[in-house]
Queue: 3 jobs
Job 1
Amino acid sequence: MNLSVLAEQIAHQDAIEWVGLLTGIVYVILAGYEKPLCWFFGIVSCACIAWKSFTDYRLMADVGLQTFYVVIGFIGLWNWMIAKTGEGNKPIVTMVWTRHAIVVVLAFIMSYPLSWLLIHYADARYGYVDTSLTLLSVWATILLVRKDLHNWVYWIVIDVLYTGLYWRSEGYLFALLYVLYAVISVWGWRKWAPKSPKGDFQHSM
């Protein structure tokens, strides 16, 4: 696709997609700054993405994921607000690497039956990739709620892959959103890393 066609596609995106884009960017930036308000913008962004994924792109696993984000957004807001230290923020933690490895393997295994169901009963596109990214995104969001440093590593990889998924689904505005997410996630990692416990994998759940 050339740039002129891309520009035309972006110009015809509707208000819901623009709201999803802008609130999503604010969400990730505020998360990098450890601001509990980030969750409010995340809830709005995910609600918009869920609607468009259902009505336009038929990414059914992503619909479920974005709905999960809306629910966990309220949990994240509550968790970040009440778990403050004397310095004013919930502390950043890390987790042993073996638990990350177990979760990733389980996510790929569970993706097979779940993607089969979505393909055959929900007319889903890119079923296995969509489902794998959904499960990993759920895990990354749980890590973000806990303020685990390594949530940013997951998001960098996930956002790059979602960029390709939305591009192939002709969701060009959301593809650009995930490019920005990936860049901001690199920044988030760099911002959180100096505040994390010494040794990336010293804390367990």
Note: Residues 3-195 form one domain.
Job 2
Amino acid sequence: MAMRLDDGVHLVMSGGGGFDLTDAFDCNVFAIDAGGEWVLFDAGAGRDMAAVEAVLAGDGIAPATISHVFLTHGHADHSGGAAALRELTHAIVHAGPLTAPMVAKGDEAAINLGRAKKAGIYPAAYRYRACAIDDVVEEGKPLAIRDLAVTMIATPGHSADHVSYVVERAGRRFLIAGDALFYGGKVAIQ
């Protein structure tokens, strides 16, 4: 079952570095209710979609109600599941201008996957799947999705392509920061 963080805000994927909801290599993926449809932030690694479907079902989120997926950066734990999510949900996939070509081409060198495999971060057998990007988001330009306004801000550091999203809903703001900041205030710069 997903972890409810707030009304209409859920943690739906999380791996070994988080809450162990899904595959060990998944990042924290958030779902926000846009008023009848759901928006996901990041896509996980894409290794165990059955686990993702089980978590979504446990929280009453039907894959067909997921309309958008926003990627924070190209690292495999954040974008490797984009192709599988697109197949499952038919969602529109959004990415920043530096992330979009890496993900669309499945460029393992650009996302530093080889280096991460050598460091033992990913198993040697892991294969990254390319995913077409439907929308290259522009910094500072809000995108309206039903009850949400999603605005991208560039936050390079963890990776050159890293972006974060400010999500506004019902007078409240949420920051989806990807890997800009880790638990305990840690920052990992590439």
Note: The CA atoms of residues 46 and 81 lie 3 Å apart.
Job 3
Amino acid sequence: MALMNCPECNREISDTVEQCPHCGYQLKKGYAEEDSKTTGRKFEVFRRNRKKIIIVIIALLFICAGSIIYCYYNAPVRKITGYLSVGKVTEAQRIYDQKIKTDSDAAYQLEDSLDDLFKKMEMNYGEGKLTYDEYCEVKKFISKYYQNYEVDKLDSSMNQLKNSKASFERARQEEKNKKYSNAIFLYNKIVKSDKVNYREAQKHLKDCQDKYKTEIDKKIEKLMKDSQPSYDSIEKEFTKNNFLNDDKKMTAKYRKLKIKVRDYQISQAKNYQKQNKYQEAIAALEKIHKDNIYDSEVKECKTSVEKAAVNWATTEAAKYANNKKYGKAIDVLKSYQKYDTTNMVADKLKLYEGRAKKAVIKEFKRLKSKMTIKYDSVDREYTVVAKGRETGYINLSNSINLEARAQVSKRDKDTTFQLIAGFQQEDWIFTEQVAFAVGNYRETYIIDYNDRYTQIMNGGICEWMYLNDLEYGDLFDPIDKLVSKITTSKKTTIRFGAKGNGTRTHILSTSEKSNVRNMYKFCVLLNRYKYLYKYL
């Protein structure tokens, strides 16, 4: 016999009774035997699994021991990263000096946690728990003890957050100043990771957009009443602020403004057409918005203007051509060629360009007949001077103080115009400046020692200088302007001078001016029309 507990009152009773003597609970027959058997089976299961249970217990003990060790070493790391993540460098420094500096395991633990630390700092900065200056101080702290760690790798996203926060502050100021367009632009630059400002920015953005729409609405109303309506300023706003395009009422008003501009510019174009001001008429039509350029009213007006413009251009070109002013005739036709759909302008251009080429060749041959040209087989260049003068040396004398000549490379199709000022006389001047007086026009060239050429001649001396070779930069007008003044003037005076050595004054002869004019035009034609080199 053995003792057992009553299932009802839990008191000890004999395992042979069928009813509890204490509470009267009716026990099932054979309950005790069954319970005894069950207990035996449980013991047998425990005996068979004893090894496994022991292994599990040992493993749990190891895990507990490892956790204890991990927590022991990681506690300082958790504390220091917690301080650093919110910018408390002073507290972090104290932990480092006391717990980590002399513990290599803890130091390694800290190094392994740096990536997570920087991610946490980025999150805290976005939530306003860390300032940018504190972030920079943390970087200095980390780089001091972990030189190989890339402390700048988060700079891009942190700078983005920094700029986002700065944009928010500027946006608030612009909103306060009622500059809603600027405020909208800045609010849209707030990034989602800037959690503190992003939520606030979305609220202000909607308010600014509504106020800005009211402003644009008033501007459109004002432009609609203008006698010279324009859509340019409104177009810029719609391009810059896409949300305006989502407002159906706003876009409807803008369409009306564009139609108003269309009708006004068509009216302007028709008025210009009546005055034969076709370039202005075409320019007026080009001011119509791209959304309206295919409207029937615009197409009809454009066709009328372009047709009239082409007819006028061909008539004007014919007038120039009849006076052998082919260059002007060609310029007029080219200005309107793109509006011609019948090839009438192209045919006239071909005709006048042929005539112009013949005229150019004829003029070039005329000028060539007034030149002496000599080919140098060594330099493979042509030297060109006025007819009757020598190519081998400078043609200056007591009566000729200005000579024009040219160096021509037929192979390279390149021509250089040269303007040489100088003289022959008995005494030296050692020229330091050359001054030209043409009517009210004055030009003075400063002559450096290296730019002055001298030679002793029979019975005197000679001084000269190449004016077009002087490096005078912005101090003087181009040589082309001087040539133009000389060749179109009635009187041109040239004066050579040097301080302490006196001066020489000379009035250019008709022959001198004519030679300069012919040589300059000869060079201009060669440089402009490359096909002339074959006539050289």
Note: The longest strand covers residues 414-425.
